[in-house]
Amino acid sequence: MAKPVGSTRDLKENIHVFNIPTGLLDVLSLRDTSLVETPAPAAAPKHPATPPQPTTSGSTPSCTACLGANLSDVREQRSHFRSDWHRYNVKMRLQDPSHKPVSEEQFARLVQDLAESLSGSESSTDSSSSEDAVSALLQRKKKRGIDNEQLDDDDMPNLPRSPIAWFHAPNEYPDTQFGVYTAVFPTKTEPAHYTNALRSLQTESPEDRLWTMLATAGGHFAGLVVRVKIPRQGESSKSKKAAPEMEIIKHKTFHRYTTRRKQGGSQSVNDNAKGPAKSAGAQLRRYGEQALREDIQGILAEWSEEVGKSELVFFRASVSNRKMFWDWENAPIKKGDDRLRTFPFPTRRPTQAELMRCLIELTRVKVSHLSEDALRALEESQRATLPKPKAPVIKAQVLEKPVKEKPAVLSKEEEAARDRWTRLIDMIIKGRIDPLKTFWEKNSDISANMMVPEWAQAQTTRGLTTLLQVASAAGQEEMVKWLLEDQRADPTVPVPSGAIAASAFPTVSDSESEAPRVAGQARKAYHIAANRSTRNVFRRAAYAHPDWYNWKEDVGVTSVLSPEMQAERDKKKTARRANLRDKLREREKLREEQARVEELAAKEAEARERELAAQVKLSTPVAGPQKLGGSGGPSGANSLAGLTPEMRAKIERERRARAAEARLSGR
After folding, report:
1. pTM to 2 decimal places
2. Spatial CB neighbours of 37, under 8 Å, sequence gap ≥ 6
3. Where are the beta strands (DSSP E) in 497-554?
4. Which of 101, 183, 184, 508 is the most buried if burial means most Cβ atoms within 10 Å?
5. Residue 10: CB partners within 8 Å, gap ≥ 6?
6. Residue 186 in 3-state DSSP?
7. Catalytic residues
8. What do you get for the CA distance between the two ends of the chain, in Å?
């Protein structure tokens, strides 16, 4: 066992991922953490693994709003609090307390899809541009109503979703962790093989190990081809100057006017959403987009040999702009290429300096110093912030809809027969006796005892099986009498148990309850009669033709009705009606007499009130002298108001004359 060193001072300050010291590489192993769970590529996890937080002091700066924030000191913590990633998570939590925080890699993909919103500022760190990007992401989240973690990965191979794989050597380098971006590993590398993949990066290759890095947003483009591992053949150990670890082979940057300043969004996207604008600026932006596309394709065609030899191709572009990298003839990059990678962290405006920063970030091994207790506490806190897995949704079994049976195709004869039955039943229900007799004479094959077809029972007669039953339930007296006596319809046919009760047809207006029957006796046409007058037809027939049927047992008629009984009943009914009319007439006469008496009493009371008021007025003494025309004062003046001068003079003369008469009479 190697001797523990307790620190990493014997290692160089910055460890290149392609040039890890052999002593460190031999003892590295993947750190086992309950938070790092990378399933099979077929089911990519929704949340990235949470790496240890790097720090160099006893305190551990952290961020509770962002998962996997790498903060080594307070300065980096403050810088993190000003980043778009942190502000986005904080604002989303304020809008929705149940919001799941996105990782740095997921936020980078969100920004790539909205790359045009970051291009309005003068510098790559302008705060207004960042604010526009965060606001645009929040607006898109609100409008589209989708989860920010559901990214468009149709153009990308299935990569490990954990942004950083953390290794350690607990015996040789205690309380120290080493992180490497999983994007540098081959596609579909399982976590168990991360250590072997890291060792394979250190092997010398006779050919150059090249990476291609491309980025475009808001009309800006930056691209470079870099040799990430320089062969060390014949290197002099006495050289004082350290040899470079990477070398840029190709690089190019340019810009085209494609985005309106401070507004964001390319002109083509705006045209698709609102229709093509006709301004001069819109025309310039469309031309700039076309020129940018041609320039990028020209650069890639020029670099086709280097791009073809590259092990990995990192790119940043919105979903609408990704096609310009591979959707053209003889493109060196094909859609779905296993070499394709997106940057697993946020990037700024595409410039050569920004690509160099991304290159250093990808190829530099991250070193963190945390004790096992600190790591355990950190994992517990991170585990508490992780959302609970949703319960599997059990789909309810969809009941199969019953297949509707198609109506049978009828022949012309069957259609004619149905038409005759429909007309016949309609005339019986409505009581149209004369048209029925004419119809009966024309169709000699019709008889009163024919059974109603089943289709008519279901559609029209509501379960009744004979014409007599239909007429009785409809309350048509003349129709029942004609069928029963003239056509000798059979009244003994029982009514089916599922048939309607009496008076169920809409033509019946004076419906009554069914006639009583003996217990256990089936219903007959007599029992379902809609009213008493219809039942009396059966009773009269039972009296007139007692030998036709056993009227009491088979038909259900409990009592017959003779003409004498009918006459006596009519006589009693007439007398009862006459008596009722007399009572109503007397009651009306009494009501009129009472109203007359009340009217006279009211008039007498009113006269007495007027007489009493006059007596009270006469008995009231008058104080002071009385002048002609009523009391003086304002009331006298008011009495002359509105009169003509001639009338006022006349009234004054009369007043003076009455006053003179009063004085003379007083002598």
Report:
1. 0.46
2. 45, 49
3. none
4. 101
5. none
6. coil
7. 267
8. 162
